Amino acid sequence: MCHYCGCRQIPLIRDYIAEHDRSLDHGDRALRAISTGDFDEAAEQVRLMHAELLAHWRGEEDGVFAVLMEEELYREHIEPLMAEHRELDALLARLDVRDPGDQALLAAQVEELKAHISKEEDGIFPVTLTELSGPEWDRAIGAWQAAHPGQELIAD
After folding, report:
1. Phi/psi at 66 (nearest 5 deg)?
2. Cα angle, residue 142 at apex, residues 141 and 144 outer, rounded to 5°
3. CB 3.0–4.6 Å: which of 54, 69, 110, 152 could bond 27 by disulfide?
């Protein structure tokens, strides 16, 4: 995990990373609950993971991604990430934690989510330091706020 460029010090990026961490925590808790046969807890953790990701994706896609995609160079990197969002959304929306096939899919998707997050945190987020101006940051923060009504960015 990169800590050199300084993007993690930007409140919006710091919050995106916290959302990534919470999503993975829910996925890991769901898998642990499945392993002990606690399917109600597993289903709740999948629900929480999905809810966290839905707000995260909306803020990210309507904010930082939308700003960066105005440049052709970044579209080829961001569009696949957005497609991965849609794929995971579809799976989490219909996942049956009692089904062994879905259990295996969830385990694979949690691992794939880790790789996806790495692409964002080590590739896309550092680019924001040089590519976003003041008004673009305002737009990105506004998108996060619209996706997280009643919430505030993490305080310093």
Report:
1. -60, -40
2. 65
3. 110
pLDDT score at 11: 78
Q: What is the maximum alpha-carbon separation in the chain? A: 50
At 146, which helix (H) or strand (E)?
helix 134-147
The neighbour count for residue 133, using CB atoms within 10 Å, is 9
CA distances from 133 to 32, 38, 138, 141 (A): 43, 48, 9, 12
Q: What average pLDDT does range 66-72 have in this prediction?
A: 95
Assigned domain for 155 exists: no
Find the helix or strand (DSSP H, E) in which 115 lies.
helix 100-119
Rg (CA), the chain: 16
3-state secondary structure of 116: helix
